[in-house]
């Protein structure tokens, strides 16, 4: 989750990755620190470092909270490239103490409200089964009659909460809106999930609709029934001359 001035940022589809299997994530080096507080955070930022916290279960399975700092340029380079898709990347970090690398997720990051420069970053130790939020991407919008006529996609869910059974987290979940008209709904069961991804939303849940003015709603085509009238055959026996 990326926050700006305390609010969550949502990137448009164009700003996020469009690959189902993302490229190997970057490696970060975290440096443990002893002091906490705003004064210490300002001191670190002046040195080109980002203050942060490493959360989650430690090597022995116990909950831990480690104060850390990291190079601001390294994080900013990754953030400018991936934006909110950083939340769906599994990173390897080392803490500079000679221990083994740790797999982590980006827990949250705070951005400056004016300059958009990262101010702090927190990580969460990753293990299969953790809950993640995967954004939706709508494909073939040019093939939707409802969107072409002035309709729009009304998201009920911008992201789908899921559990992941591996270290490969999809950058996006894709929804095909080709042929859809205003008034039609998109259900979770219309989305194809990878085998290792389990959604935490009911299959019958509506994730989005094709919305628009009432006049854009497609009316059901009236069935045209062709009526064939049989020509009436009149008996003109009175006009016929007798044979005998």
From TrEMBL:
<dbReference type="Pfam" id="PF14693">
    <property type="entry name" value="Ribosomal_TL5_C"/>
</dbReference>
<keyword id="KW-0687">Ribonucleoprotein</keyword>
<feature type="domain" description="Large ribosomal subunit protein bL25 L25">
    <location>
        <begin position="31"/>
        <end position="123"/>
    </location>
</feature>
<dbReference type="InterPro" id="IPR020056">
    <property type="entry name" value="Rbsml_bL25/Gln-tRNA_synth_N"/>
</dbReference>
<dbReference type="GO" id="GO:0008097">
    <property type="term" value="F:5S rRNA binding"/>
</dbReference>
<dbReference type="InterPro" id="IPR001021">
    <property type="entry name" value="Ribosomal_bL25_long"/>
</dbReference>
<dbReference type="GO" id="GO:0006412">
    <property type="term" value="P:translation"/>
</dbReference>
<dbReference type="InterPro" id="IPR011035">
    <property type="entry name" value="Ribosomal_bL25/Gln-tRNA_synth"/>
</dbReference>
<keyword id="KW-0699">rRNA-binding</keyword>
<feature type="compositionally biased region" description="Low complexity">
    <location>
        <begin position="9"/>
        <end position="26"/>
    </location>
</feature>
<dbReference type="InterPro" id="IPR020930">
    <property type="entry name" value="Ribosomal_uL5_bac-type"/>
</dbReference>
<dbReference type="InterPro" id="IPR037121">
    <property type="entry name" value="Ribosomal_bL25_C"/>
</dbReference>
<dbReference type="Pfam" id="PF01386">
    <property type="entry name" value="Ribosomal_L25p"/>
</dbReference>
<protein>
    <submittedName>
        <fullName>Uncharacterized protein</fullName>
    </submittedName>
</protein>
<feature type="domain" description="Large ribosomal subunit protein bL25 beta">
    <location>
        <begin position="131"/>
        <end position="213"/>
    </location>
</feature>
<dbReference type="InterPro" id="IPR029751">
    <property type="entry name" value="Ribosomal_L25_dom"/>
</dbReference>
<keyword id="KW-0694">RNA-binding</keyword>
<feature type="region of interest" description="Disordered">
    <location>
        <begin position="1"/>
        <end position="26"/>
    </location>
</feature>
<dbReference type="GO" id="GO:0022625">
    <property type="term" value="C:cytosolic large ribosomal subunit"/>
</dbReference>
<dbReference type="InterPro" id="IPR020057">
    <property type="entry name" value="Ribosomal_bL25_b-dom"/>
</dbReference>
<keyword id="KW-0689">Ribosomal protein</keyword>
<dbReference type="GO" id="GO:0003735">
    <property type="term" value="F:structural constituent of ribosome"/>
</dbReference>
């Amino acid at each position: 989750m990326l926050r700006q001035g305390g609010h969550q940022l949502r990137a448009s589809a164009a700003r996020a990755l469009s690959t189902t299997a993302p490229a190997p994530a970057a490696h970060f080096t975290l440096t443990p620190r002893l002091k906490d507080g705003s004064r210490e955070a300002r001191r670190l930022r002046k040195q080109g470092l980002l203050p942060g916290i490493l959360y989650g279960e430690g090597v022995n399975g116990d909950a831990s909270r480690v104060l850390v700092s990291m190079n601001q340029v390294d994080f900013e380079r990754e953030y400018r490239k991936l934006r909110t898709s950083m939340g769906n990347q599994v990173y390897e970090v080392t803490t500079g103490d000679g221990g083994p690398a740790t797999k982590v997720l980006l827990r949250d990051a705070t951005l400056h409200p004016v300059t958009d420069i990262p101010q702090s970053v927190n990580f969460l130790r990753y293990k299969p089964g953790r809950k993640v939020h995967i954004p939706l991407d709508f494909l073939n919008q040019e093939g939707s009659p409802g969107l072409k006529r002035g309709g729009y996609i009304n998201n009920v869910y911008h992201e789908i909460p899921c559990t992941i059974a591996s270290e490969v987290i999809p950058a996006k979940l894709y929804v095909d809106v080709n042929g859809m008209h205003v008034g039609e709904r998109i259900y979770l069961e219309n989305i194809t999930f990878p085998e290792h991804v389990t959604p935490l939303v009911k299959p019958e849940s509506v994730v989005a609709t094709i919305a628009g003015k009432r006049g854009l709603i497609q009316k059901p085509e009236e069935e045209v029934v062709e009526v064939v009238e049989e020509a009436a055959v009149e008996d003109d026996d009175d006009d016929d001359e007798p044979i005998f």
